[in-house]
Amino acid sequence: MSTPKDVDVDVNVVVVGGGIGGLANAYALASAGHTVRVLERAPEFTEVGAGLQMAPNATRILREWGLLDEVIEAGVTPDRLVFKDATDGSELTHVEFGGEFLARYGAPYVVIHRSDLLGILHRACERAGVELVPNTSVTDVETSADRAVAKSSSGDHTADVALAADGLRSTLRASFSDDEPICSGYVAYRGTFPLPERPDRSEGPEIDVAVDENASTDVTDVTVYLGSGCHLVQYPLRGGSILNTVAVFESPAYHRDEENWGGPEELEEVFAGCCPEVRRGLASLWRDRRWPMYDRLPIPNWVNGRLALTGDAAHPMLQYLAQGACQAIEDAYCLAGEATARSHPGAADWDTALKEYERTRTERTARVQSSARFWGDLWHVDGLARLIRNELFRDRQPNDFKHLDWLYQA
User: Fold this and answer.
1) Which of 104, 156, 162, 261 is most deeply buried (CB count within 10 A of its CB)?
2) Beta partners for 83?
3) Which residues contact 270 (CB under 8 A, 6 or more apart)?
4) Listing from the earlier edge strand, what are the strands of the sheet with 221-227?
5) 3-state class of 279 per DSSP?
6) What is the spatial distance between Cα 145 and Cα 378, in angstroms, rounded to a whole number?
7) Pairing state between β 155-164 and 307-309
8) What are the phi and psi torsion angles at 187 (to 5°)?
9) Are residues 20 and 62 in contact, defined by beta-carbon separation less than 8 angstroms?
10) pLDDT surpassing 70 at residue 203
């Protein structure tokens, strides 16, 4: 749809969606001198979930934005990423996050609670003068050659540019593609509990958690147990005061086309053959909520007039590379940089900035999306493929970064 060119703008940029991607864009653009309004459909700016892993490709940007110290204070800088076999508990390989890793990538690896990162970005947006508008549902964005109008429950919001940051199930993505989210058949359960306390076992099996005195999990590490059609991840959050656990498995009921799939009983069945450390870890999971895992195929076009996609609306991905939030932050950094590079007195050359943003980001995020799928397949193999994978992992030298450089280096 189109809107008349002579309509005055309310702000330079209107952002549809107040999650991590939306607020990262808002902060980056406001810090670059643009006026920004964020429209969030929920009554509050909140995030649901638990932990996030922030790799150096994101933490370098957070440092440049002046936010890294606050992120580190709210989170944890783990010592290592450790991969183990979920069946026998043996270590396969690990990555040390200090020393050579820091020197190579120029920024730390940080784990942080999702809501803590959102809070940091929210406060940063307030300091930067971003207008934050909750309880506002956007139904459409009309565009012209030099305007975008977000149609919402609170009326029209006119801007030079509109950003669709409305997530995996973005309604605004329909302006670019008729695709739908793709279900992987996998489902995630999450949970946290205080350290060194024990979780409430009322909803789980009568077993010890993975961090008791007999467990091998080091709570200073990010530990990933790779299993047949399943995996479990554990790492500390909030200064090491709580342990975050995520269990992911492929649902047999999903492949039988059953309506109710991925329930707690399947969780127990799929993980039944895993080692004691993994079985103990299941006790800390919340059983009243689960997260089916979806992504979408990459699309080459993110810009339609003065409307652009960003974050999960542009490139929803499976979680195996822990890059969802990192890539959203990269999006924000790229777009703000392009807008700044193409500014002239009185205005920005938004058309060129958006074109360069699309060209730069679509290729990289498509690789991340496809690599995440491949990585998930590799994690979950069984039989001979498991033995081959484990041998390849064990043969890797701890200082071998060749498979990380493309993702983590600037």
Assistant:
1) 162
2) 93, 224
3) 229, 230, 249, 250, 252
4) 91-96, 80-85, 221-227, 230-237, 242-250, 182-194, 291-295
5) helix
6) 46
7) parallel
8) -140, 145
9) no
10) no
What is the pLDDT of the chain when averaged over all its residues? 92
Within its chain, how far is the Cα of 27 from the centroid? 18
Q: What is the pLDDT of residue 345?
A: 60
Q: Which of 237, 236, 38, 269 is nearest to 135 (CA)?
A: 38
Question: What would the mean pLDDT of 299-318 be, rounded to a whole number?
Answer: 98
Is pLDDT above 80 for 335? yes
How far is residue 100's CA from residue 406's CA, in Å, rounded to a whole number?
Answer: 16
Rounded Cα distance, 45 and 122, in Å = 8
Residue 152 makes CB contacts below 8 A (sequence gap 6+) with 39, 136, 137, 138, 139
pTM over 0.90: yes
Residue 61 has pLDDT above 90, yes or no: yes
Query: How far from the centroid of its chain's Cα atoms is residue 242's Cα?
Result: 20
The residues assigned a catalytic role are: 235
- Give the pLDDT band of residue 337 (cuts 50, 70, 90): very high
Q: How confident is the model at residue 3, as a pLDDT?
A: 37
How many alpha carbons lie under 13 Å from residue 279 in its C-beta half-sphere? 13
Distance set, CA 409 to CA 98, 102, 166 (Å): 15, 11, 28
Count of C-beta atoms within a 10 Å radius of residue 178: 6
- Packing angle, helices 56-64 and 324-341, rounded to 10: 40
| H or E stretch at 407 | helix 405-408
Q: How confident is the model at residue 308 (pLDDT cuts 50, 70, 90)?
A: very high
Pairing of strands 221-227, 91-96: unpaired
Question: CA-to-CA distance for 62 and 183, rounded, in angstroms?
Answer: 32
First vs last C-alpha separation in the chain: 38
Cα(156)–Cα(138) distance, integer angstroms:
9
**Contact in structure between 130 and 22 (CB atoms under 8 Å):** no
